[in-house]
Amino acid sequence: MTGTQPKHGFIPWPPVIYVAAIALSVVLGMFYPLPWIGDIFGDILVGAGWVALFGVAALWVTAIRAMVRARTTLNPNAEPDHLVTSGPFGITRNPMYLANTLLLIGVSFITGIAWFLLFAFLAAFATQKMAIEKEEKILTTKFGKKYRDYAKRVRRWI
Known about the structure:
- This protein has five helices and no strands.
- It is mostly helical.
- α1 (13-31) runs antiparallel to α4 and α2 packs antiparallel against α3 (95-111).
- The protein starts with 12 loop residues before the first helix and ends in a 5-residue tail after the last helix.
């Protein structure tokens, strides 16, 4: 890459962001619990939480499998070798980041710790601003029209 092309940063922001969101959710949940609607919808939310966690596993496994088959990197800071558009990448451009967000939502529904739900959306926003937008510039530079066409067909999140 030349100096004018976008570059990946040094810190792999998405994992850092989601780990921080989990840690903050646990600590704040212990010391400053927020009210939760679980009394009314408890069983439904717990069931929805388990469905979300199943979705997390499915997204992670299928996304990693698609990337391995395409022989591209799994490292969020490395330059991709190939544009992956199959598997879950045919539904969302960021299946692993979506899985991370669903993980927080699912845990929130199961545990009743509202902080997980709040931090799920904050982590998704931070990931988009600190990682996804930069990754999209890199993909556009590297793959050009092929990536732009893909981005028109497939949504960033869901």
